[in-house]
Design a protein that fits this description.
70 residues, OB fold (Dihydrolipoamide Acetyltransferase, E2P), mainly beta
């Protein structure tokens, strides 16, 4: 993993095969749940309870607006 990548540590809470990718739900160490997609390049699939480090290049980061509470 490159030094300049963003990264968080967490634990897999769910894994769902979606065809060309696997969708993971990962609980971060501070309690936020992240939805992560990984392209299926091998038969290795993470399981709930597995500890992981999620990382990505800063230039691939974007934010989404949260709708105001009703």
């Amino acid at each position: 993993m490159p030094d300049r990548h963003n990264r968080i540590t967490g634990k897999v809470t769910d894994a769902s095969f979606t065809g060309v990718s696997t969708q993971y739900l990962v609980m971060s160490s501070w309690g936020d749940e992240w939805m992560v997609f990984e392209q299926n390049r091998s038969a290795d699939i993470l399981r709930p309870g597995d500890e992981v480090v999620i990382h990505w290049a800063p230039e691939h980061t974007f934010g989404l607006d949260v709708p105001p509470a009703a």
